[in-house]
Amino acid sequence: MATHKTYDPDHITKETFQTLLARYPSTVESTTRRKVTTTTTEKKSGASSSSSSSRSRPKSKSASKDRASEDPDDASAAVKTYLALDEFRYTTLPDAVRQRASTTIGDDGEGSAYLEKEELVRLVEWKMKHGKFRPALLGMIRSNPDRQVREATGSAFRLMRTADLRETFPGTALETLTGPLRGVGPATGSLVLSVLLSSDDGEGDGEGQGVPFYSDDVFLWLCLGVFPGGDVGRVGKAFKPGKSGELNVKYTVGEYRQLWEAVRRLRARLGVGCAEIEKVAFVVRFGGVDGVDGVEEKEEEGDKEEKEGINLQDTRGKRKRGKNEAEEEEKEQKVGVRRSTRRRGGK
């Protein structure tokens, strides 16, 4: 039987961790389909409420059938897009970085790696699909000159290559990205660092250096202590008031350091990699835990309410963030924007 410790990061077993990791692909698909269905339903509801004439007009069976067939197609396309971006983030791009590190020689005579601008753009596209959609973010990323992206990411790689990241927080490497690059704050910067050093992530043994991505899922699980069977009261504290689904965090370097420490502890205890923790956190958050270690689909009322609450926080109100979303985006990106403005002013 599962207990409150089953998914607690301080007590989760290697066996349970690996079981959840194996459920990542199916959880990605089910979560993506659920999000598309929710969004489609909200759009249809809004459209029907805005047209009184259409509400009073009886719907034909053929029209209802056509609309019913739209959702599966939309969901399948969304899943296909997400899986392609997932493959890019976890396999294609790390392989490209690894290849550059082995063939590109820097000024110091050592191998060097970097990201191209279009790779950074696509990585951020994955980030938005994976978590929070921010319309202005891609525009900010695209505004960075190609050469500046290569230089900043290359400098970050060289800094990490010479540091022991098992014990040393990559603050300097992070600043190398957030300073010159517009649209790159601590969260996005950590994602770039995680890809740049993925070739030494030590997946499966926990001995590689690795850099964790500051994802909402990981922070929610490891730092805010929200997981099935845990303290239900923490769910309310973890999210901002209302139904926007925004985590009650500020995306600061200090918070990222807290996440980095928590990931380091879990890696040391279980011998797992950063990307593996990232995937398991996604499964823990989005309900891929049924049947694991005795957890039945029919859960205790409190557990069911908590788990559904986590999912609903993420899927409800996606289009209603407005000012709050813009404010949070500005906070996360303020370092890069501010320094970029200073640089322009100094020309």
TrEMBL record:
It comes from the Eukaryota. Residues 46-55 have a biased composition (Low complexity). Residues 23-76, 295-347 are annotated as: Disordered. Coiled coil: none annotated. Residues 336-347 have a biased composition (Basic residues). This is DNA glycosylase.
